[in-house]
Amino acid sequence: MGAYILRRLLLVIPTLFGIMVINFALVQFVPGGPIEQIIAQMEGGGDVFEGIAGGGSEVSQGGDSDYIGARGLPPEFIAELEREFGFDKPPLERFLTMMWNYMRFDFGESYFRSISVVDLVLEKMPVSITLGLWSTLLAYLISIPLGIRKAVRDGSSFDTWTSGAIIVGYAIPGFLFAILLIVLFAGGSYWRIFPLRGLTSDNWESLSLIGKALDYLWHIALPVLASTISAFATLTLLTKNSFLDEIKKQYVMTARAKGLTERRVLYGHVFRNAMLIVISGFPALFIGVFFGGSLIIETLFSLDGLGRLGFEATVARDYPVVFGTLFAFSLLGLIVGIVTDLTYVLIDPRIDFERRG
């Protein structure tokens, strides 16, 4: 097993390098770099894309200086901006310098916020940890027992009405469910039971320990529920189908014939095999909810997390934030994939990745 883990860790390096190469190359063809953003603001344009839409001045790709002749600013000022942002160097040199810094976990400083990328991410992390961790935990705690129950009682009235509820939950987009929750329970049109914004109240520091915990849960109830709905539906159906496939196999009939109780058959034999496919979806679910799936939820509930940070950095072409977070989150996703493989072995010791390799 040690050799397998070592191979997987070594594969992380070229995979991560490939992700960064592709994204860095794509950025070179995207109009409206950080220098153009600054120039547009200085000239009162508000946004560099307004000039593109209006057929105005020429815009560079990835920070080149094709736009100098079409702007009213002195070339010396443009050249100074290029030196400050590092765009006076060839793209290959900039990429290699960036990767060398990232390997030493030096992610630089945001172009527009005068704060290091690490500090900026840590500032936004509590919101994403709240949404990602609680949503994933809640989805698994509800979906796995419910999926098992549906598989055991397949075809019953319980299975029928819960399937209807799950299909409705799967069909409703998370943001639409969030709006519904706001309208019903956050003072939209009916009851004002839950707060509409933030993770804590203004007087949170003065509350007792229990009061702080209750205040925190009070604030996160609606956004976590909105984030959980789609993952809950998918995971429940996946668990049910996985258990149904295993229950019909010969070894289950043999275990029952030996006189084992239904509970012993279900959790002593079926559970390990059926849970493998459920666990295989954990990395994608965790990374998706934790880092990518919370933008609209954060916006609706006025939460300032990593979803909004990534979106705003992309729009503003804040490349240190974009590439720094991409590198860190891609690395985390690859590591979570390795941890998932180790969980396979923990659940089913018959799996031997070393022998398969």
UniProtKB/TrEMBL annotation:
TM region(s), chain numbering: 9-30, 127-148, 160-186, 216-239, 274-301, 321-347
Residues in ABC transmembrane type-1 domain copies: 125-344
Pfam families referenced in this protein's UniProt entry, alphabetically: BPD_transp_1
Domain of life: Bacteria
Sorted UniProt keywords: Cell inner membrane, Cell membrane, Membrane, Transmembrane, Transmembrane helix, Transport
Cellular location(s): Cell inner membrane; Cell membrane
A GO biological process held by the record: microcin transport
GO cellular component: plasma membrane
CDD domains: TM_PBP2
PANTHER family to which the protein is assigned, alphabetical: INNER MEMBRANE ABC TRANSPORTER, INNER MEMBRANE ABC TRANSPORTER PERMEASE PROTEIN YEJB
Name of this protein: Microcin C ABC transporter permease YejB
Source organism per UniProt: Limimaricola litoreus
